[in-house]
Amino acid sequence: MTVPAHHIVPEPPALEKPPYPADIFAGRTVLVSGGGSGMGLAMAKAFAQGGAKVAVMGRSLERAEAGAEEIAALGAAVHAISADVRDPAAIAAAFDEAERVLGPVTLLANNAGANFPVLAENISANAWNAVTRIAIDGTFLCSTEMVRRCIARGDSGAIVNNSAQYIWTGFPGDAHSAAAKTAQATMTKAMARDWKTHNIRVNAVAAGFFPHASSTNGDAPDAIAPLQNMIPAGRTGRIREFGWLSAMTCTPLFGGMTGQVIVQDGGESLRRSLMMPDFVPPRERANGPWGWL
């Protein structure tokens, strides 16, 4: 069913009205992996709105530069870098470049990832490695690279990881991504414990559906409608909400929080009742394992 017109569907503030002061990250540099588009770009913009200098890192320099242009339009100092998060040497070089141009990196947003719907028995070894290594290895390598530098300088820091709300339930056609995102969540807790004494906090956002132009389904109204109708909040997430929450976990406003995985999904993960549509096995769905493609 569609969301009835009389239901109240709350919307977040406009992009121009972030929920924190414009100088809350003043003097600090953040590196955002996969920051040139989609959810990574939303994270990068959110940090920029708080006054951070932003290093946008991606495998495609062209895409990173395109994202950097949008961030520069917000008035932030920004620099685009190309690096593969699976390559330790490339990550070290990216941090060297970011710090040479923008200053010491003490904030990190691990967003780089890959995903595509495919039934588990059809996932090739290469496909499995592509998804899991970007999310797991990339999060580990970027995090440890930043933290080693922070510890050497005596700097405090904060990290936020882009996880997913299906880490507790799995998701049809998503064995590779579910495994990778679950590892990110567990890593979040382990790293928070390891780096507590260095005043380096690590948290994650388990994101629900945040349609955007580069997501699998895109952000066209006819693609979003079926998702909105199944979410208790009455709508999918607005990508600026994800960016703001991610950045906020790295502010002093959340200074007492570390090792947490925050669910931001409009209540979709709570959608359980006695009366629900009949279950259709993923391989029998007419529109693919995700069901709405």
TrEMBL record:
Instruction: Describe the location of the Ketoreductase domain by residue ranges.
Output: 28-224
What Pfam families does the entry give?
Answer: adh_short_C2
Entry keyword set: Oxidoreductase
Name the Gene Ontology molecular function terms of this record.
oxidoreductase activity
The protein here is known as SDR family NAD(P)-dependent oxidoreductase
Natural source organism: Sphingorhabdus pulchriflava
